Amino acid sequence: MELVDRYIAAVQRELPENKRQEIGRELKANICDQLDALSEQGKLTEAQTAEVLKTMGHPRKVAQQFSPSAPIVAIEDIPLLKHTLFMVLGVLFVLQVVGGTMQWLGTAESSLVGFLHYIAAGFIEDASFAFTAIVLSFWLVSMQGKTVSGRHCQKWQPQNLPKVGPAWEHISLSDVFTDLATYLFLLLVIWSSVWMSNEQLSTPTVMFSANAQQLLQWFTPIIVLSVFNSLWQLRRRVWAVELLVANIGINVAYALFLLVLAFSSPILQSTNEGVQSIATLAMLDKGLSYCLIIAALFPSYESVRDILRCRKLAK
Amino acid sequence: MTSSQLVKMRLELRRGVLVLAVLGLLKQPHYGYSLRKQLQQGGIDIDEGTLYPLVRRLADQGLLESEWRQAEGRERRYYQLSLLGAELLSQLTDEWQQLNGALAFLLEQSADTNSADINSSDKSSDISAEEV
User: Fold this and answer.
1) d(CA A207, CA B35)
2) Out of A68, A270, B33, B132, which could bridge A33 as a Cys pair, Cβ 3.0 to 4.6 Å?
3) What's the total number of domains in chain A?
4) What is the ipTM of this complex?
5) Which of A124, A156, A188 is the last residue of a domain?
6) Are residues A169 and A310 in the same domain?
7) In this structure, are A171 and A274 located in the same domain?
8) Residues A24-45 as b or e (16 or more Cβ within 10 Å = b)
9) Residues of chain B with pLDDT under 70
């Protein structure tokens, strides 16, 4: 009997306070009935009692069956929860890149590792808070027996669904947020003279030449257009001809600009005696030119890809 | 199909039927162990870890009434259908009979189609063998 009491106590420990007494009492009555039935066949051994309890199942499993724990978030809300998390974490990543860029440009060290560390640490901190807040909000709604997606699911119209198409027609959220982070990073670098103090501006040892700086500033409207284009993609989430045409235009502009910048030597100038050695600066300039030519290949590829997609959609 | 898939699907199949069987048996008062024995005698083997929580859930939903009684020197909790439970049982029984009839017809039909397919494929293989 001691084994039974230990088993009941173990089950009770896993149960909510208000159910322990009642379930424990009932479980004990049921187990005793089984043991009685066994003892009718002969003297009941401890091994037989243990076998009966083992057949009942692990105390935690039995407690879970008697009092199943409700999921933190309603099953119907899981896709919406994932989507919300992705969107919010994406925005936080973009903001962190913006903050990281300003910090990076504003410090004397300008270490790439420091920049990446700042972004990673800040993002993890913000993302932890956002994750907790979002999950808690969903949990509060679930606690009231409601679902967040319930109202939205009732309002939908079949006519508003996107047409059937290949997988590429769906615009990936990660692509949009990566693009947005890149554009904002570029804007901050190009217009660093506007938001940086004189003290900070005097710190960098290598910076864009006047010619390159002017070219970059002329290109600003295209970058701003790119931001709007990304926001448009975020709203539509499915490629359409007009979105593809806009994307082709922007990518062609980027490819041409990168090539022009690559061949507009000198791209860099130095304010520091240590780096003013002609060989060092020329090497940096040449390296950057090659990098810009390689970078131009990406928007070129995307332009060709989007032209082909545009043709497919037009058919 | 793997054995784990079979076990999972059997469980799914039995889950709904089990509620009906328990409600049906509890027209008469039963305590946990006697209910299990009755189910076993009726050909439904169910483990205690599933049956006892199920009975409690049905009671929590107001489908069963329960009372503690002293018998053979020990206390036992007896369960019996409530009015709501009896009403639901009647509706579920109709639903089950309808479903059972429809399923029997569908399964019989698919069995006929399968045997017809096997016969026709046997004939065609005979013909091709003769042609060869």
Assistant:
1) 85
2) B33
3) 3
4) 0.75
5) A156
6) yes
7) yes
8) bebbbbbbbbbbeebeeeeeee
9) 1, 114-132
